[in-house]
Each structure stands twice: as structure tokens, then as C-alpha cells.
Amino acid sequence: MAKDATKDHSGGGDPTRSLMLLWRKQNQAPVRNGRRDLSVDRIVGAAIEVADTEGLIALSMRRVADKLNVGTMSLYTYVPGKAELIDLMLDTVYAETAKSGDGAEPGGAGSGAGDAAAPGWRGELHRVAHANWALYHRHPWMLRVGVSRPPLGPNVMAKYDRELGTIADIGLTEVEMDTVLNLVIGHAETTARRALEATATESDTGVSDEQWWQAHSPVLNTLMDASQYPRAAAVGAAVGAVHGTAYDSSHNFEFGLARILDGVEALVASRKSE
């Protein structure tokens, strides 16, 4: 994942223009210099390719124009600026979670991967988590965008509605349904971020986490008295023996997801017993 110097935020553009663009209600841009092949969708597609391959730090109206082999000013006929473009990019990639089979199983020892085949809401919510985990891995730049003010486009709304449908009518209040989704997707986001940071660190240094720990552990053992930190020493050794590193993102994703689902299941069961 690229190390961006600053963080962009969704919802930073002109509200009316952003929403008109997201819902494709703006007037069609006039044809310039005989070009009829330029469109909002083409611009957004090129911008996503730039962000996927070069990182969000490389994204600019000029870079997208270069990729499309057009003048930078041509883009402003369709999209007023980078803020609106980022909203369009996010709304576009969110649509990917609707695809069947989205989200490979990370696996990991002690995981809750069995939930993938679980019937009912638990299996569905498990698939929601994996779809979001996979989305962040396909588009790491998403983790560099603050989305406390999400782009209110059709794909964002469809994603939210579809994900809410996995836990509809199971005994949760509307606020609890929203909170459960925030827990599940937030967990996928956090563990995906750790996984992508590890990948970026390995790429930047040429040293894997396992190699790093193998180099540092012998030195640490000569400096640290394990009897002073007995729990840290014992648990750290056990984790290192299983994962070869101090933190395994895939394992933590699966284990944490299973515990979240356990908690939701306990809440649902308590409602039925009331």
C-alpha cells in the first residue's frame, strides 16, 4: 500500500455537483474537438487504475488526463475536481461487493472460516466481511480516504441496503443493525490495513516479517530477562511458533470475525428468550 503523505476525504466536493454526478443526473458534457469517447465513467475508470497501480498520492486530474491521452482541461468539463472524482471512484468500487463469490477466504489457524457455510444470517454476514476484506485488498487506496462522510451514491446505498438485508428480521433494532454492520466492516478494514501495511513494509525493505523476527529475536533474547515479562515471553513465543511473526492479519481477521458473530448470536438468542 502506497505511503501517501496526506489523507483525502470523501464528501469534500460541492454537494450538489457531487450528488448529481454520483446519480448521473448532470447534463451531458458538450463534445470538444470531435471527441465523443470521453465520459464520466471513462474518467472514473482511469482514475481507479491510477490509484490501484500507483497509489492515491499519484492521483491528480493531470495524471488521469495523461492516462486518457487528453488535455487536463477536458476532464473538468465532466468532473469539477479531485474531491468529486474520489467520491465517484469510491461509489464505483463499492459496487464490486455485489458480485457473487466476492471475497477469498484468508484462512488462518483458529479461524472462523466454517462460518462461510453457515446457514442464515451468520453465513451471510460472514460473506459481507469477506467481500469488504477483498475489496480493500483490490483497492488499497480506499484505506487512505476518510469516509466518515460517505459518498451518497447509488452503489453506496445499494451496498448498505444489501448488507442490512443479511441481518433483517433476526431480532435487532434498526440502530443495532447499523452498529453490527459497522463492527463487521470496521473489523475487515482494520485487519486489511494491517495486512497491506505488512506487504508494503516487505516491499520497501526487501525483508519479510518472518525474516525480520528471525534476525531480531536472538538479540532480544540476550537483552531481555524473560522472567520479568513471563506472560509476554510465553505468549510471544507461542504466536511466533504458529505464525512466524508477531501478528498474522488473516488469522486475526477470521478469529475476530467469529467472535463478533458469536456476540451477535448471543444478543439475538437473548431477545428470543425474553
In short:
This protein has about 270 residues and is mainly α. Helix content is about 60%, strand content about 0%.
How would you characterize the overall build of this protein?
It comes from Actinokineospora auranticolor. Residues 60-79 bind DNA. Pfam families: TetR_C_1 (PF02909), TetR_N (PF00440). 60% of the residues lie in helices and 1% in strands. With 274 residues, it is mainly α. It folds into two domains: 8-97, Homeodomain-like (Arc Repressor Mutant, subunit A, Orthogonal Bundle); 108-273, Tetracycline Repressor, domain 2 (Orthogonal Bundle), CATH 1.10.357.10. The protein has a two-stranded parallel sheet. Helix 6 packs parallel to helix 8 (174-205). The termini are far apart. The model is unreliable at 1-5 (pLDDT under 50).
